[in-house]
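The data are quoted verbatim for completeness:
=====
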Amino acid sequence: MNSNWNRREFLQRASAATMAALAAGAPLSGILSSCKGKAGANSSADTVILLWMAGGMAHTETFDPKKYTPFEKDMEGNRVLSTFKSVPTVLDGIHFSDGLQSIGKVMDKGTLIRSYVAADMGHILHSRHQYHWHTCYEPPQTVAAPHMGSWIAKELGPKNPVIPAFIDIGQRFTVGEAEELKAFHTAGFLGNEFGPFFIPDPSQGLESVRPPVGMDAKRFERRNQLYNELINNSPVGEFGSDYQRESLKRSMEQAYALLNSPESKAFDLHTEPKESYDIYNTGRFGLGCLLARRLTEQGARFISVTTEYEPFKGWDTHENGHTRLEEMKRQIDGPIAQLIKDLDKTGHLDRTLIVLASEFSRDMMVEGKPDIKVQEQVPQPDILSEPKFYGMHRHFTDGGSMLMFGGGIKKGFVYGKTADERPCKTIENPIKIAQVHQTIYHALGIPPETQYEVEKRPFYTTPDGKGQVVKELLTEKIA
C-alpha cells in the first residue's frame, strides 16, 4: 500500500471505486451469497446508535486519564500526559477526565474499552481513518464499500417501515474535507435505498421530512413522478442494473411514506418538554442525541450522531487543545448521559446498542505509533511557551477509548488497558476495527459469513469475513 497518498489521491481513488461499483452492477436483491443463518436471529439488539467523536478524541484527555500536569510557561511537552484532572466515576477505581462527570455516572450501565488500536495506513489523514472505521475496509477499494449503517439497513431492513433504516444526524458536506467524507457516507454497491437519510441540523429535523417551502402535496407528488423519469433517463438508468434503478426509486418511495406518517412528528424537537430539551441543548450534537432518542422510540434501525469533522476545530486539537476540549466535553457530557438514562427508563436501552468512538487518539509527542512513526503534520514545540500548545496535538493510533451501552453489552465492565507513562499505548487486550464491527453485527444477529459477489469476488461485512466477536464484551456466553 502506498503510504504517501494525499487527500486528492484518496478522493480520486474513492470516486473511481464508486464508478466501478456502478459498472459492475449489484448483487441480487435479498439474496445472501453464502449466509448460513437468518439475519436477526438470536440477537441482543435491534437498533444501533453511533455517537461519532469526529476529529480524533484523545483518550488521555477523556476516558483514560493519566497523570495531570498543569500548564507552566516554558515547560517540557514530554512531561504532559493529561491536561485535565481525573474525577471518579460510578465504577470503583475508574476515573474519567474532568468535564465528563455525567457520563461517568452512567457507566454502571455500559462497558468502557481502553484498548482500541487504529490501523497503520502511513501518512495519517482523518478521512482515510474515518472511512476505515465506518466501512471496516482500508481505502481505496475497487468497489464502493458500504457504510456499517448500510449493511445493517440491508440485512435487517427498517424496524418501522416508515422510518428510514439508516439516519445520519449532524453531518454536513459544506465544511472540511467534504468530498472525502462523502466517500464513506454511502451504501456503495448495496444500492441507494440503504444509504443514509441525512439530517444536517437536528433543530431543523422536521424540515427534512417536509416538501420545500411553497410546494403543496400535489406538486410534491408530481416531482416524485418526474424523479422516476429522471432515473430512467440518467446514467444509472442507461448503464446501471435493474437493482440499482429500483433501489433509487425505493429510496424516494420511503421518503414519501415518511412525509405522510404520524411518525414524522418525532423529527420535530419543538414538541419535546422544555426541561428535557434544555438538558440536550448544548449545540448541534446535543440536539442530535435528543433526535436520536426520539427516533429510536419510533423504531429507527441505525442512527449516527456526529460532532462533525472540520479541520482544526472540534476534536481536531492541533492548537489550543486544552481549551477546545473544555468546550467539546460541555457539548457531549450531559446529552450522552441523558440519552442513556432516557432509553434505560423507557426500556429501549435493553435492545439498543450505543457506541461512542473516534477514528484515533492523540498524543503530545508521538505521531502514529511509537514504533511506526509517520510524517509530522503540525509543528509541536518540545518547550511549551504558550498555552495554545498545551493539549494533545498529534495523531496517535496505538491506543484509544470507546464506550458501549445496551444491546447485550456488559454493565459496569472495563476492557483493555494502556500504559500509564508515555507512550500511553495499548498493553492489554488490543481491539481493532474488524472486531468492533463483528461484535456489533453479532449483537444484531447478522452472521459473519454474510457476503455479496461483487466483481466476481465475495465482499463480506468484514474483510474476508475474518472479523472476530469480542465475546468478553457481551453478557451472553459464546462458545
In short: Residues 53 and 358 are 5 Å apart (CA to CA). The chain has twelve helices and 20 strands. The first strand starts at residue 47 and ends at 52.
